[in-house]
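User: two proteins, same treatment. go.

Assistant:
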Amino acid sequence: MDKITQLNQTVLECLGETSEIKIVKAFTEAGLQVLHADFGFVWLNSAKSHALELVYKSPNLPYMPVVPREEGRNYRVLEFSTPDFVTDVKKRMDKYDVSSYMKSFVIIPLVYKQAVYGTMVLCFKKSESFSKEKRILSVFIGNSIAQTVTIRRLAINEQEARILSEKRELLLNEEKVKTEFIANTTHEFRTPLAIIKGNIDLVLINDSKGVKSVKNTLVAINHEVEYLSNILADLELLTSERGSVKNRIVSKEVNMADLISRIIKRCQAIAHKKNISIKAKNIPRIILMGDTVYLEKAFLNLIRNAVIYGREGGWIKIDAVKIGRSVEIKIKDNGIGIDEEDLPRIFDRFYRADKSHNRSSKNTGLGLAIVKWAVNLHGGNVSVKSHKNKGSTFNVILPILKQG
């Protein structure tokens, strides 16, 4: 019973093992102990040719086993799924003679249900009569190895199937994103082009109204052309290869406090129209290494968005804190907030949580995608916390060069 327990323990220890060779090694050493054999080795079917290949031999094996003949004992053991007990090794006059190394051996089939894996050969320096117990143990060893290998292969197949399914799902999601991106891009271009065409048609129909009418039309067309130019510029950034963009950026020392101050001044005009206050506090004079243009574009989009979606008479607060070798910049507002269902996609290209958003600000719907792109380009990350009708907080973490 102790020997069966030992073999069962080996099964348990090998269930989580990913290497068949380690499984075979563990059972070979266990088999040598429970049968009191002196040395042994294992043949497994090759995945390519299905011929038996030597995969493990005990360290004290005194000779190199010769590849079995297809009409030899190993193949007959596999054919009948029954151990072959040789109690008296006869001397042979060919390369298969092993009489000088052992007096007895057993060939154990590694078979579980319909799965046939190979054979284990356990050898005895002295003559062995193979008691009933040892014959039962031999069958148990073979079945245990085969069962453990079967479980391992089933687990691997299941894992591979799951990985394949996840990859397929990922590809489908990527295709869906591409389709949505193309559809959204088409939609964004269609509206300004329709406005341009309508204005031109209007001038052609009413050309008698003179220069003033033409000038007003050109102003309207210019507005739409600027909007299209903004879309194309943002799309160029988002669709550029990351490596090629890195080669184009101009990295230099950027003072965080000065950068935020400049952006606030740029946003004061539109904030004033909605009576929104923008206040920055505790902005340390931290020096970043990066491209001023892209960093300014990222923070300008965040602060301008806070104004666009802010409430009349609302506020925007900006502060920063040094954390180790990074700085965390928080841009908080008390605006309309973002629905919980929209938060996972808020940084997607063209995704707008506010479906009623108007185009008067020339906002392309790519702003937050640009923010994420620019921040990631500088080795940082951006996240958002928001509650509908309670406001939003955008957190930007960037690596710092030094304290100013």
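Protein 2:
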Amino acid sequence: MSRFDTYFLMNSDDIIEYVKEKLDMFEKDAKLDVKEIGDGNLNYVYRVWDEKSGKSVIVKHAGIELRISKEFKISTDRNRIESEILMLVDKLAPGLVPKIYMYDTTMCACCMEDLTGYELMRYALMRGETFPLFADDITTYMVNTLLLTTDVVMEHKEKKALVKNYINPELCEITEDLVYTEPYADLRNRNHVFPPIADFVQKELYDDQELKLEVAKLKFDFLNNAQALLHGDLHTGSIFIKKDSTIIFDPEFAFYGPIGYDVGNVIANLFFAWCRSDAEFEPEKKESFCEWIHETVIKVIDMFIEKFNASYDEHVTEYMAKTPGFKEHYLDGILADTSAVTGLELNRRIVGIANVKDITTISDQGKRARAEKICITAAKDFIKNRANYKTGEQFWNCFMANVNKF
């Protein structure tokens, strides 16, 4: 009888005992060190290592409440979903996700490859680091994991079984509230609004009925469009990176939804990095970094389109999806969703409960207010005019047009 046969929230000492019992990686008498390294809003993440042997492991442990708010009670089944999806994605996009050693449905914990030597992309971008392989890596990941899990490619009953297996109602509800509702109406009085732009937020978001109508349409599409198996939270805080390697992790929000949701999240978070560098960096560093963001935004959109078209032609199995013109129709819908979600992510990270450090760490209040206004006005453009943006250059020009307003 093990004390890990019944769920409880583990601390650092428990984690050491846990890995010794559950894994055969370490010697029984090994003197292990442990550190909690979690930086997200949901889970506890521990690094466990043996200095003598050099072996190490990451343990991700799910609590029953959000770390940022005990108001949110969430199912620990997300740990199963994340572990299974990482194993599936490792087959679809090998080398772009961490290896899973085991997951435990009782303790709601998974043990995975330690990515020491990598760093969170968000923090690297905040320092002005650039990554030449990122656009290629992230577009390969998105095309392989998204297109290959659609009805266009998969046998329909097999795909429906995946939809059933990865239904994720509690975490989807968080997205439905925090992305598709609360930035447009502070229904629970928990939005974080930077005081210098409170009147701007009231006018541009809360009082804009045309915008609310478009977001309402998008929300109900999100609720009903089981298009592909999404990561569900694909931003620069869910990516470990080095100059020569990209690793995507943390797919606990995964479920079947619109492909553009993942692509738009990537684009929006690159714009956050641009805003911070524009406000914080010295001129020479700012110029080179902002140019890299410019090139990367364009590459992510255009390489996604190029790889999508090639993969579609290679892997399509559905007879009607081979009808001339359908691929173009399908891709147009994805790009419109990408634009819309770029806007939704920009808004929810400025106004909602889960802000981003790219923006909140801007030291000058006036520059921060400018950055937040840029994001909000660009977001409205991406949402309201979502059918207009079909190339990387068009996405970039939309953002820069709003930069130039301030």
